[in-house]
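Hi R.,

As promised on Friday, here is the backbone we talked about, encoded as structure tokens. Could you run it through your design pipeline when you get a chance and send me back a sequence?
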């Protein structure tokens, strides 16, 4: 097993916000890294989480018991600075927090202070309150944060999107089933229009 796997293998993954992306992250954590899954989402019932092999708990429980926390909530008045100094200080000093949701979900100043004081081990961010992160941001001066653009997967994803698009045009023209269709109601309209 590679050393990087050992860092999270069998640990507890906390997912805050369990929509489509949060569910994918939870599934990868459980199946690829044998992680225990804790979920905080006020809009779901426990049975929904159980079908994904996780447990629905409070935000506080996710913060206190997880080893890796991944944020997947929309930005709203109730989620702005959802994670501030108080919440970061609930976490263990070995914890890592990842925000790929919206920058303002984490209080940037509190995060910087907690990272600098080693209240938590580290953070991974691909979103910032103000895009693009300023060159003089204090987050750029510490070594326990990974900063990437929100489009970090863009080169590969862009190529794959074009490939799937071209393949779907060819499949449509051959009368074959299309790949990765999100709006299935559109398929019926497109089929009728083609006839």
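Update: got your reply. Pasting your designed sequence below so it's all in one thread:
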């Amino acid at each position: 097993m590679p050393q990087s796997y050992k860092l999270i293998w069998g640990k507890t993954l906390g997912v805050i916000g369990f929509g489509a992306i949060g569910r994918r992250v939870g599934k990868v954590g459980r199946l690829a890294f044998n992680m225990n899954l804790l979920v905080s989402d006020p809009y779901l019932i426990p049975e929904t989480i159980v079908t994904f092999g996780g447990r629905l708990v409070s935000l506080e429980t996710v913060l206190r018991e997880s080893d890796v926390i991944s944020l997947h909530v929309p930005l709203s008045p109730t989620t702005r600075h959802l994670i501030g100094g108080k919440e970061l200080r609930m976490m263990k000093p070995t914890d890592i927090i990842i925000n790929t949701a919206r920058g303002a979900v984490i209080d940037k100043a509190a995060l910087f202070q907690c990272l600098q004081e080693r209240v938590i081990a580290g953070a991974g961010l691909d979103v910032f309150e103000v895009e693009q992160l300023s060159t003089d941001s204090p987050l750029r001066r510490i070594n326990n944060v990974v900063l990437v653009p929100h489009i970090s997967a863009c080169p590969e994803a862009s190529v794959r999107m074009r490939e799937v698009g071209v393949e779907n045009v060819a499949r449509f023209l051959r009368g074959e089933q299309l790949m990765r269709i999100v709006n299935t109601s559109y398929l019926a309209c497109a089929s009728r229009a083609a006839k």
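One thing I noticed while checking it: The chain has eight helices and seven strands.

Thanks again,
M.
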